């Protein structure tokens, strides 16, 4: 392990997390502590990463399909860039909704229309987290899926990639 | 009124004051309705600024943040002043909760 580079991958069954919901919290704290070790902004980075991982785990537990398949959470850090990649299964319909929701949030950020996030119906619980991630931490989010779907209910292997630059993590309060 | 679970406590026994502590990670905004009804009741009954003390709240997931933001909008609609005490040593609190003033510029904060 080098001080400026760190990678790890966690494989898990979402059903394990459903049965013991607290594992999501413990896993995220463990990952973030490991990940932010030797960082100048250790506590701040750890807290942000723990929050992001928590939200990722909650997302897959709630919306993921094929809950008996292995999902993976991968973290890479090179210099200032932290990348968290979540690989799991989603119905194409959910992917489309998530992608359009993401576009909407970028638009809300652009138009400074924060309040409209609070009352959305689909993925209502995610709105604030995504907004905060891109607005407060200047993070970026990308959603990819492995192949063309046959119909809206097709289950696809999905990858969500989150990028954070530790230079943007400022204690400005 | 007080709600105490293994993970969190919401204590509204004192007039104009609500204390939330622990970790809240309920699965949806809907599931926050019941525990947060205590805050709504306190808001209705408040005779002065309602203080919501979050300094011992270690974690609140996005469902909780969304529900909390809805309470702020309700306070704004009823012109009920709110003060939120946040813990500056818990980074997500300061960073994320302070952004709630986008919902209501009369929302006041105290950093502990």
* CATH uppermost class of chain B: Alpha Beta
Structural class of chain A: alpha+beta
| SS element count, helices of chain B | 3
Query: Would you give the CATH topology of chain A?
Result: Heat Shock Protein 90
**Strand coverage percent of chain B:** 25-35%
CATH superfamily of chain A: Histidine kinase-like ATPase, C-terminal domain
Overview of the structural elements:
The complex is a heterodimer of chains A (173) and B (112). With 173 residues, chain A is of the alpha+beta class. Chain A is 46% helix and 25% strand. Chain A is built from 6 helices and 5 strands. Chain A is globular and about 45 Å long. The mean pLDDT of chain A is 80. Chain B has one domain: STAS domain (Transcription Regulator spoIIAA). Chain B has a 6-stranded mixed sheet, covered by helices on one side. In chain B, helix 1 packs parallel to helix 2. The chains are: A alpha+beta (173), B alpha/beta (112). At the A-B interface, helix 3, helix 5 and helix 6 of A face helix 2 and helix 3 of B.
Helices and strands in order:
The complex is a heterodimer of chains A (173) and B (112).
Chain A: E1 5-12, H1 14-19, H2 22-36, H3 42-63, E2 71-78, E3 81-91, H4 92-111, H5 115-118, H6 124-135, E4 140-145, E5 155-165
Antiparallel strand pairs in A: 1-2, 2-3, 3-5, 4-5
Helix pairs in contact in A: 2-3, 4-6
Chain B: E1 2-4, E2 8-11, E3 17-24, H1 33-45, E4 50-60, H2 62-77, E5 82-86, H3 91-97, E6 108-111
Parallel strand pairs in B: 3-4, 4-5, 5-6
Antiparallel strand pairs in B: 1-2, 2-3
Helix pairs in contact in B: 1-2
State the gist of this model.
The complex is a heterodimer of chains A (173) and B (112). By secondary structure, chain A is of the alpha+beta class.
